[in-house]
Amino acid sequence: MGTFVTTVRWTARIIGTLLLLLIAVFAIGEGLPNPLILSPREILLFAAIAMMLVGLIVAWKWEGIGGLLILGGYIFFAVVNHGAPFNIVFGPWLLTGLLYLACGLMKSKAARPSSRS
């Protein structure tokens, strides 16, 4: 079980790091958006992406909480955007959130004392 959890954790970390690098490349190349000229919808979409980015960082320490933040941001993005296509851009966010959440759940389940005698 320990090797499986470690594999899930590092798969999520590698995909998450690649996502952070992708966002960094866009931020460096295009610059951060000016919130004063964004529409309310664009501000909400930016907040959803920021929530997912925070989730990626938090998940290095607390997988379950980070996974929830990533998935919450993804769902928020999908609601504001009237859907989020499952493609090469959005798929890795969903996958990373699910992997971190699974890792957090497996870790908490393993930490619980067994009631069997």
Keyphrases for this structure?
117 residues; mainly alpha; 74% helix; 0% strand
TL;DR?
This protein has 117 residues and is mainly α. Helices cover 74% and strands 0% of the residues.
Blueprint (SSEs and pairs):
Blueprint: H1 2-30, H2 40-58, H3 63-80, H4 91-111
Helix pairs in contact: 1-4, 2-3, 3-4
Distance between the termini: 21 Å
The count of helical stretches stands at 4
| Mean pLDDT metric | 90
Parts with pLDDT < 50 across at least 5 consecutive residues: none
Care to describe what's here?
With 117 residues, the chain is mostly helical. It has one domain. The protein is built from four helices and no strands. The protein has helices spanning 2-30, 40-58, 63-80, 91-111. α1 runs antiparallel to α4 (91-111), α2 packs antiparallel against α3 (63-80) and α3 (63-80) packs antiparallel against α4 (91-111). The longest helix has 29 residues, at 2-30. The protein is elongated and about 55 Å long. The mean pLDDT is 90.
